[in-house]
Amino acid sequence: MIAVPDRPAAGWRVRPVLAHEVWPVRHQVLRPERPWESSRYAGDHRPGTRHFAVLDSGRPVGVISVYHEDPPAEYTVPGLEPGRGWHVRGMATLEEIRGTGAGSALLHAALADAVLAGAGAIWCKAGSAAAGFYRKHGFETLGHEFEIPGIGPHLFMYWMDARAAPTTSPLR
User: Fold this and answer.
1) Which of 45, 75, 135, 160 lies at 20 to 30 Å from 141 by C-alpha?
2) Using one digit for the tens of pLDDT, what is the confidence trace for 114-168?
3) What is the CATH number of the domain that holds 60?
């Protein structure tokens, strides 16, 4: 099971939030040179979508969203059954909390939530600069680096809970 650290001594906590609460941090970190609307994603209000924030004195300083969504057809995650994919998107932390463990806690909260909801694998299109962070947390890369126009280089990455991996029963 994934443990989700909570660091009240450091002043921050990870909590579920509403979609509109993640948009300001997404915009500031991921889309600062783009229109405000670019921080709102099409699936933000879809049933089953979840949003989490690291709150520092009640103010979001880091965010992540997770959507019940299989990966695009061009990416075959080994052993992933259709309908069991979850998509992590829009992860962003303000500079002021980087290096505190808040980003790891945020990712762990999203992974734990998806696993509890039945995820077989969690995937993302990680900015190439963030790939090391995701690898540190057990994500693997599929394919080659690609460019998202106007945003930059990315990698397709996925994480699979060992308990969700397909198994062959010895019983017949």
Assistant:
1) 45
2) 999 999 999 999 999 999 999 999 999 998 999 988 788 999 999 997 655 444 4
3) 3.40.630.30
25 sits in which H/E element = helix 19-30
DSSP annotation of 34: S
**Residues contacting residue 11 through CB under 8 Å, at least 6 positions apart:** 56, 57
Residue 96: domain span: 8-164
Structure tokens at 139: 């994500």
The phi-psi region of residue 4 (left if phi > 0; otherwise alpha if psi is between -120 and 50; otherwise beta) is beta
Tell me whether residue 150 is in a domain: yes
How far apart are the C-alpha atoms of 58 and 47, rounded to whole Å? 25
CA angle 84, 85, 89 (to 5 degrees): 150
Q: Is residue 172 part of a domain?
A: no
As given in the structure block, the two tokens for residue 96 are: 């002021």
Which residues is 88 bridged to in the sheet? 66
